[in-house]
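Q: May I have one protein plus its fold?
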Amino acid sequence: MKRMIRSLTRITGAAILAALVVSAPLAAQPAAAQAQSSPLDAAVAALRSIETMRADFVQTDRNGQRLAGVMTLKRPGRIRFQYQQGVPLLIVSDGKALTMIDYEVRQVQRWPIRNSPLGALLDPARDVSRYGRLQPTADPDVVSIEVRDRSHPEYGVITLVFVRKASAPGGLELVSWVALDSQNKRTTIRLSNQQYGVAVPDDAFRWKDPRAPSRR
């Protein structure tokens, strides 16, 4: 189990990048604009329509090792990846920075959200087509978007997968993503039991600092 956890520490950047994509500050679009948009624009608008969300997730690395947990999202920019019992890792965004806490080694790492190149996918002031590209799928109800910053290959690639669902915000539901880092290490996140509009208190995005008794 410890070996699996250490492996997770090395690949958890994939979950971090995905969190930056999903938790960027959002702004809803009018329904008429969504109807006339491309599938790429519709997927972005669907993510922007989410106020709060809670979902179960399963994270799988390239060796088939799997870990589960719960993802909680709240606009603007707040997200929490709570891993299953026995995994001493926590990923939290407070809207300004994304923090990974490793309670086993008492280590804290932080990244400013504004520095995420993949966050451009949800930034209405930037050219979405520069980073996102539709991928062909065999099912017309599935929308797949590959996101990469070609000027920074070290950031890797993330492919977001949506399914059409009338009850989901914007009519599309994010069900999974696949992250491929610059060393070709693949990580897959699958979501299930998505719940929207749930009550999420602000203190859900606080965390206990393992280096000190105070809370952040």
DSSP finds four helices and eleven strands in the chain.
